[in-house]
Amino acid sequence: MRLIERRAPDNQKAPTDDYEKLKSDMHKFVIDRIEDDKIIYDDNQKKLEEAISAYIRQYCRIYEATIDRETFKSLEKHLLNEIVGFGPLQSLLDDPGINDILINGPRNIYIERAGVLEKADMRFLDNRHVLRVIRRMISPLGRRIDESSPIVDGRLEDGSRINAIVPPLALDGPCLSIRKFRKDPLTAQELIASGSVTEEVLNYLTNAVESRTNVLISGATGSGKTTLLNILSQYIPTTERIVTIEDAAELRLRNDHVVRLETRPENNEGVGEITARELVKNALRMRPDRIIVGESRGGEILDVLQAMNTGHNGSMSTVHANSARDAITRLEMMVGISGFKGSGELILKMIGSALDLIVHIGRKPDGRRCVLQISELHVINNELTLKDIFIYDEGSRQVVRVDGAKTATRSPDLAHI
């Protein structure tokens, strides 16, 4: 991922200290007037907008401040966002072209567009301002963040995932990471048009899904694992019952018969946590045809593999890994920490008999996300092997079928069983 510093366009002035001070003073002034006048704006944003305009004019008269029309409109919008939205972040959250928003303290806000990070021309007033916005985000979730509970994960109403960490753990001020939730999910044709997959690869994958192949999608953070999983899930026959399990619900399946489950973190008293492993175990009692785990990151992978081995064919999940072979190593590690008492050789055999396909997806230096590798898993003569079916070709800049793919190649990273 490249990082660039983007200058403000000629028609968009970067915020100055004078403007930020004016906005801060006016914010306090407007809030006081709204409370004094007992204006109710929950269901009447138009009324609030009119009130803000009137209060800005009142402020200018009282303090003899002179502002031009452009500044007036900017202040009006910023104050509205501060009162009913998420302050400086509201315009970024409303921008459909932004995928990630990263706040490193009050003066460093970064955004990601098309896989490329750039610095945004906006900032918060101070650390308290950042903290106030974070608390507004997590308030509907019943969560809190302070020195005694300095880390919080959550999901906004639109599905966007958030993670916040504040001092004393964050040394340079409160930090907030937002993975935005796309309102209109990517389609298969958009994936082909962007170069993420070829039509041949997509046909191969959709056939695999329709024929109830167990699929694992691997890749780094932000590589597009959930996006691909979402697209592939659209090809599950509508006659099947699906149970999805996620930490933050992002999957939007178009099937009618879907049961969506979401983990729950512990509350402020440290109780009430419901883990992915508990939900997977419960899902097995719900008569699923397929189980889809948004991301496998712990002991739940043992139950997922056992489900794949006991009749729930066509199940899918994702995992963080740098390649298909690394994905196997990650699975082996997660099974090991689940409390499974079997040997490493037995774990590899269980992985090989449960999984049929590993799809590895990654992000190229130009920010483009694409499928880099598709490998089949086989247990032959008690030996786990990976057979590459498609690999990414740097020359053509797309994934291509491997010559002689019918010949299985032993992975040097895997132990002999």
From TrEMBL:
Signal peptide start and end residues: none
GO molecular function, one term: ATP hydrolysis activity
Gene3D superfamilies according to UniProt: 3.30.450.380, P-loop containing nucleotide triphosphate hydrolases
The AAA+ ATPase domain, residue ranges: 211-405
InterPro entries for the chain: AAA+_ATPase, P-loop_NTPase, T2SS/T4SS_dom, T4SS_GSP_E_ATPase
Family the UniProt entry places it in: Belongs to the GSP E family.
UniProt-recorded name of the protein: Conjugal transfer protein
